[in-house]
Specification:
The complex is a heterodimer. Chain A is α+β, with helices and mostly antiparallel strands. Helix content of chain A is about 35%, strand content about 40%. Chain A is built from six helices and nine strands. In chain A, the strands form two sheets. In chain A, strands 5, 6, 7, 8 and 9 form a five-stranded antiparallel beta sheet that branches. In chain A, strands 2-3-1-4 form a four-stranded antiparallel beta sheet, with helices on both faces. By secondary structure, chain B is α/β, with parallel strands linked by helices. Chain B is built from 24 helices and 20 strands. Chain B has a six-stranded parallel beta sheet with strand order 3-2-4-5-7-6, with helices on both faces. In chain B, strand 2, helix 3 and strand 3 form a beta-alpha-beta unit. In chain B, helix 4 packs across helix 19. Chain B starts with a helix and ends in a 23-residue tail after the last strand. Classes of the chains: A alpha+beta, B alpha/beta. Chains A and B meet through helix 1, helix 2 and helix 6 of A and strand 6 of B. The structure holds thiamine diphosphate. The site of thiamine diphosphate (TPP) has 20 residues of chain B, from helix 18, helix 20 and helix 22. Thiamine diphosphate binds next to helix 18, helix 20 and helix 22 of chain B.
Chain lengths: ~180, ~575
């Protein structure tokens, strides 16, 4: 079976130890985590892990089964790229002088739809949100001028399909 | 001093009492019905031990001689009683010594709560004396774990620990409690846990799945049941028997399923897996419907997966959704507790006999009997076999004993040849294969079932891994019957070396101490048998003893366990020699 990119979305109770538990599931199977993001979700008190892996469908299904089995996990889903809307963000730190000396830089900023977050005497910071390929493209355009610092976030994703977590939580409460 | 009853009524009235965290732990244990625990003290858990001292009329603490022994004893207790076993240890080395038993309980779905002491909260992360990150270490091998850092968390977390350990698919839970939390006083009240929001212990059976499964079973010409520990954990023994008898389906067991069904039942066709019986293994690849009940298709059961029951429709009765389609794809998955799902399907099953199909098992059994079973049980050659020792134990116990086996050849002989009439009677380390499991597990098993005979079968290798627990047997006069089958080798590894490594016996030959003297050193009655003519009498004497008894049997040094599915081979490639 072909490997492809899957976005795993995990809804969980806020819990300190859970990240360790979940990462152990990948470790045990030698599965590389391409990116990981933890945030709050649409439901109060419920966290959301967004994990990107490149794996076969079968491997992804089994991993998600193991994740969902963890006590504090409410529900785990996995989706292909087509089934999600997803983004990453990146920050670039660049010498301020370039902003005035290199015309090309201004063009890159405009065309890439990125934003200037801050400008100081020594450096300015660009922020870009988009697909990985867009961030990569911007990176390669800026690279020749010198990037002082670069960082890219994990993927965040929203699914096209509904994720009925609230209903699930009600069911859990009823089962109690 | 509060009585247990008082605690319970207090709970009802929701009144509180001001006590220390350490005392609260005792009240939690009592409220959960715990009257026995195993453990080993040390600095970080001393406040709790001080309370154990005060409560010793209600709560028996058994000091094992190593923390690993505490976990296995708790496991043995849990396996025969179905209740949660409890083990306790101090921080650092005490806690790390629990890890093997925890891993064993995790893979064999055994309900256990481990309580560890931890350094003061303000010292966490400072590499304090005997500070170990036991939460980090135990995470991959626990169903759940938690570090308590303030006393007020104790009641809720302890209640949750017991609930999680015993509900759904059971497993080990570890609660680590910092010393300040044990010392602090707080207003204690206890409420049992009845649910955890994000956790669904038992999936609801789907009637459509039951119907589909019933249809497949009713249409089957060669149906075959393989059951595992899920039947025992779900207490579905009667339902299983009813299904087997009504539908006339031959049923085989995994090593952890053993004793869920009378071993002499005419439709009980034996064990599946690497050293299982010939018929059930071969015929796995000839059945048309494979009905797996409460088992997880471990690789020791399936052999090579791409040649496992490919011709069959597979029905999987299982409580844990993550087991569905994990190793073997099922055509119908029936999720739920085995007692419930089997009760639901039973009325939909047609009566049947499947005589011709059953005869195929009998024919295969005949082959195995002539080539393997007969020479094991009634050998004509000199040299005692492990099989004949089991035969004598069966005769003396009238199939009523709890058999606790260690890991190795003797374990396979014990599971192949021991006879059982009653469920929860076979205690062995199946998934992890932990040498050293049996002696402490037998202590727990005996204390969980004092009215029953408990016989433990151990190899000379594994015996020496936890031999110090003889101290517990002696100190508390726990009347377990210890049988060491001494072949002066790490027999199972030696067998593999003989078969697959051209008999290069690397580090598998053992020069052993005088085991009889060691037992006698612990004031345990002991005997050694090396001749066939003395075996029966020795076993009978052991079984008749009211006190603990040690029997060493000098067996053939280079015997092998057969049949055998070589690692990586298919169930069809099972070897008779
Ligand atoms: C803790 C542990 N270490 C190593 C092994 C690997 N192992 C499996 S069986 C076996 C030999 C057991 O020898 P013995 O206890 O004498 O029993 P026998 O096979 O001779 O009956 C070994 C070393 C194991 N299962 N557990």
């Amino acid at each position: 079976m072909e490997k492809e990119t899957f976005t795993i979305s995990v809804y969980s109770e806020n819990n300190v130890g859970l990240l360790n538990r979940i990462s152990g599931i990948f470790l045990k199977r030698h599965v590389n985590v391409e990116s990981l993001n933890v945030s709050k979700s649409e439901i109060d008190g419920v966290s959301k892990f967004t994990i990107v892996i490149i794996e076969t469908y079968e491997a992804a299904r089994k991993i998600v089964g193991q994740i969902e089995k963890q006590i504090e996990v409410i529900k785990a889903y996995f989706h292909t790229n087509d089934e999600t809307i997803y983004q990453e963000s990146a920050l670039f730190k660049i010498k301020s002088s370039l902003l005035f000396d290199e015309r090309q830089i201004q063009n890159i900023i405009k065309e890439s739809n990125s934003q200037i977050v801050t400008v100081s005497r020594d450096f300015f910071v660009l922020s870009k949100t988009g697909r990985r390929s867009e961030v990569d493209e911007m990176h390669s355009q800026l690279e020749p001028f010198g990037i002082m610092q670069f960082v890219r976030s994990g993927r965040i994703a929203i699914t096209k399909a509904e994720m009925p977590i609230s209903t699930l939580l009600e069911e859990f409460n009823l089962n109690k | 001093m509060e009585t247990l009853k008082a605690v319970k009524t207090e709970t009802k009235n929701k009144k509180t009492m001001r006590i220390s965290g350490a005392e609260a732990i005792i009240h939690c244990l009592l409220a959960e019905g715990v009257d026995l625990l195993y453990g080993y003290p040390g600095g970080a858990i001393m406040p709790v031990y001080d309370e154990l001292y005060k409560f010793q009329d209600k709560l028996t603490h058994i000091l094992t001689r190593h923390e690993q022994g505490a976990t296995h004893a708790a496991q043995g207790y849990a396996r025969v009683t179905g209740k949660v076993g409890v083990a306790m240890a101090t921080s650092g080395p005490g806690a790390t010594n629990l890890v093997t038993g925890i891993a064993d309980a995790q893979i064999d779905s055994t309900p256990m709560v481990c309580i560890t002491g931890q350094v003061f909260r303000h010292l966490l992360g400072s590499d304090a004396f005997q500070e170990t990150d036991i939460i980090g270490i135990s995470t991959p091998v626990t169903k759940w774990n938690y570090q308590i850092t303030k006393a007020s968390e104790i009641p809720e977390i302890m209640a949750k620990a017991f609930f999680l350990a015993r509900s759904g698919r059971p497993g080990p839970v570890l609660v680590d409690i910092t010393k300040n939390a044990q010392l602090e006083e707080f207003d204690f009240s206890y409420e049992k846990c009845t649910g955890v929001r994000s956790y669904k212990p038992v999936p609801k059976p789907e009637i459509s799945a039951i119907d589909e499964a019933a249809e497949l079973i009713n249409k089957a010409k060669k149906p075959f049941i393989v059951f595992g520990q899920g039947v025992i954990l779900g207490e579905a023994e009667e339902e299983l028997k009813a299904l087997v008898e009504k539908a006339g389906i031959p049923a085989a067991w995994t090593i952890l399923g053993l004793s869920a069904m009378d071993t002499d039942h005419p439709l009980n066709v034996g064990m599946v897996g690497m050293h299982g019986n010939y018929g059930p293994n071969i015929l796995t690849n000839e059945c048309d419907v494979l009905i797996a009940i409460g088992m997880r298709f471990d690789d020791r059961v399936t052999g090579r997966l791409d040649d496992y029951a490919k011709q069959a429709k597979v029905i999987h009765f299982e409580i844990d959704p993550a087991e569905i389609n994990k190793n073997v794809m099922s055509d119908v998955a029936v999720l739920g507790n085995s007692k419930e799902t089997l009760s639901l399907i039973l009325p939909k099953i047609n009566e049947n006999k499947h005589e011709a199909w059953h005869n195929e098992f009998k024919e295969k059994y005949k082959i195995e009997f002539d080539q393997i079973i007969q020479p094991q049980l009634n050998p004509s050659k000199p040299g005692l076999t492990m099989g004949e020792v089991l035969k004598e134990i069966n005769i003396a116990s009238e199939h009523k004993a709890v058999i606790v086996s260690d890991v190795g050849q003797h374990q396979m002989f014990a599971c192949r040849y021991a006879k059982f009439k009653q469920s929860k009677s076979n205690v062995t380390s199946g998934g992890l294969g932990t040498m050293g499991f049996a002696l402490p597990a037998a202590i727990g098993a005996k204390m969980g079932a004092m009215e029953r005979e408990v016989v433990t079968i151990i190899g000379d290798g594994g015996y020496q891994m936890t031999i110090q627990e003889l101290g517990v047997i002696f100190q508390h006069n726990i009347p377990v019957k210890i049988v060491v089958l001494n072949n002066e080798h790490l027999g199972m590894v030696r067998q593999w070396q003989e078969l697959f490594f051209d008999s290069r016996y690397a580090s598998t030959v053992m020069t052993n101490p005088d085991f009889v003297k060691i037992a006698e050193g612990y004031h345990i009655k002991a005997k050694r048998v090396s001749e066939r003519e003395n075996l029966k009498e020795a076993v009978q004497e052991m079984m008749a003893s009211k006190d603990p008894y040690f029997l060493e049997v000098r067996v053939e040094k280079e015997d092998n366990v057969f049949p055998m599915i070589p690692a990586g081979a298919s169930v069809s490639e099972i070897r008779l020699k």
